[in-house]
Structure formats: structure tokens, C-alpha cells
Amino acid sequence: MQNLGYDMGITVTRYPHVFSDKRVDFTPKRMIMESNRCILCKRCVEEVKTPDGKDVFSFVQRGVKTRVNIDYEQEEKLSEAEAIRAMNLCPVGAILVKGMIQKLPFCEYKYDLLGKDLKPIVHNKALHKEPDEKFIVATTSLAGCFGCHMSLLDIDTDLLDIIEIAEFNKSPLTDIKNFSKRCHIGLIEGGCSNSENVEVLQEFRKNCDILVAFGECAIMGGIPAMRNFVPLKECLEEAYLNGVTTEIGAHVVPGHEDIPQLLNNVYPCNEVVKIDYYIPGCPPSAEYIWKVVKSILLGEEFSIAHDEFKYD
Ligand code: SF4
Ligand code: SF4
Fold it and tell me: Does the C-beta of 39 come closer than 6 Å to ligand 1?
């Protein structure tokens, strides 16, 4: 289903991420229910019955709290083949059968190669520059681990091709701290975790014609957004007061007007400014980052098939 979304050009949700943390139910004898993946399509509720016609799955609660519940007693009555059928019915992998979880590695599931041969979905005109000038690229790392920037450098000698057509302005790669001219492309790693991240991202939007979010942290918050499941106050207390590595008697949570203020949540970039393109992966491979950048600069068509995404 995700793959179909990618094939249709849907690369990011236009709704804010809810980051709801639903219970993963390991109690059933044979199954695991991963409610965080469930899209409430109702297939399991309608189609999975015991040999004596009883329901195994049902919807419980209402509104945004609606979730699928497993009747443990009825679930025990399913044969192994029926349990596996239930797992295969679910379009998003929310129903898992213990010991029978996908045998194939990620990227080789039944639908993962759909779209591999589809036509590219990037259609844009070459960006304007004077004939004797180079394209100008800026990059920044917001709330990320810097892994995406490390990946940028993985192109090794191909970097020589890049600097034939482009030069870098504000970027950790050049250590240029402020924009000195308008840029054709801004590459954003990481989401927004504090007030400084928001300011930098807005500055990039103002100074770059095209903004590209690269890596999962920029696209959906990534690892830093795991703190969204815990209230900010508890996160700070765990980090500075109660954590296993804090000194006995520690009683100060740092806070000063000169220190960027933490936001209540970590936000994906597109929830703060308009993002023009997304490059998925954690980190995306250097080859694809630069292919996408070059295709945008030169107006060439390019797409990344789902099986080529890189998650280390
Ligand atoms: S089939 Fe899967 S996605 Fe659909 S309601 Fe059941 S658990 Fe949720
Ligand atoms: S997407 Fe992965 S590699 Fe990139 S900043 Fe986030 S955690 Fe690091």
C-alpha cells in the first residue's frame, strides 16, 4: 500500500503526525497485534471467523482511539493456516503470526518491487542560472545525527563532477555560517526539535528556490521524534535528574534565554515550511542524494524505486 502511494507521487503525509503510541499486544496464543500500523480497513473484522463462525477481531473504542481487538479465546481456535491467512489479509502488516513473520527480507516482499519499472515521477525544468555561473547549493543539519551529511560525502570522487556544476554556500561542509547569496537548492537533514531549528529552516526557505528534505528525520521526525511519545518534562527529568548516568544529587535542568528552547514535540520539516522534494532513507545513499539534486538542477527526470531505499 505504501508502495502504491509512492508510485502515485505521494511522498509525505499532508496531515501532522499524531505519534500515537498504541499497545502492541503479544498476549494471543499465536498472533501479535501491532495496532500502530493498523489503518482500520476492517478486513480482519469482516473476514476472519473461527470454524464455528465466531468473530476473532472486532473494533473497540471510538474516534481516534478506535483500535482492533483480538478475542483471545476465539483466536486459539484458528488453525495455523487460518492464522497465516489472517496475517496475509492485513494490508499493512498489523497482524503477525509468531514464528511466521515475513521470511523475505525488506525490499523483497510481494509488493515491494511494484513500480520498479514505472516512469520517473520527477518532472521539472532546469533551474535558471547565468551560463558562466554555477548552481548554488546550501545544506544544514537540524535535529538529526549528521549521518545524512556523512552520506553526502560518500560519493567520493564523484564530488568532482558535482563541483563542476555547483558550488556550496551556507553548509557544514564549507563551514560558511551565513547565506552570502541566493541558493538554487537547500538540502535539509533532521527535523525541528528546538527554536533554533525552526529559525534555520525558515531562513533556508527564504534563501533557497527549492528545499529538499533528505533522510527520515527531516521527512517524519525520525529517531529524535521518539521523544514525542513522552511529555517533554519527563524527558528532561530523565536526562538531567533521574537517568542512570546523572550524578547523585543532580537537581538542575539547564534552561537559559541564550539556549534554544526545546519544542514540545519534534516536527518534520514540512510541518514548519513548504518542502519541494523528499529523499527517503536513513540515511539515503550518496548516489541517490546527488542524482536527485542533479536532476532537479538540470531538469532531468529521476525517481527512486522502493527497493532502492537505504535504511542502515
Ligand atoms: S486488516 Fe489490518 S489494517 Fe485492516 S483493520 Fe485489520 S489489523 Fe487493521
Ligand atoms: S535520517 Fe538517519 S542518518 Fe539521517 S539524520 Fe536521521 S537518523 Fe541520522
Answer: yes
**For residues 208 and 120, which has the higher predicted lDDT (pLDDT)?**
208
Q: Give residue 147 CA to ligand 2 midpoint distance, Å.
A: 5
The residue whose CA has the least distance to atom 6 of ligand 2 is: 217
Domains and CATH numbers, the chain: 7-97 (3.30.70.20), 135-308 (3.40.50.700)
Q: Is 41 in the pocket of ligand 1 (CB under 6 A)?
A: yes
Pair 271, 16: CB distance under 8 Å:
yes
pLDDT in tens, 244-282: 888 888 888 888 889 999 999 999 999 999 999 998 889
- Of the listed ligands, the closest to the CA of 56 is 1
- Asked if 135 and 166 count as a contact pair (C-beta separation under 8 A), the reply is yes
How far, in Å, CA of 160 to CA of 158, rounded? 5
Q: Note the ipTM here.
A: 0.78
| Span 59-88, average pLDDT | 93
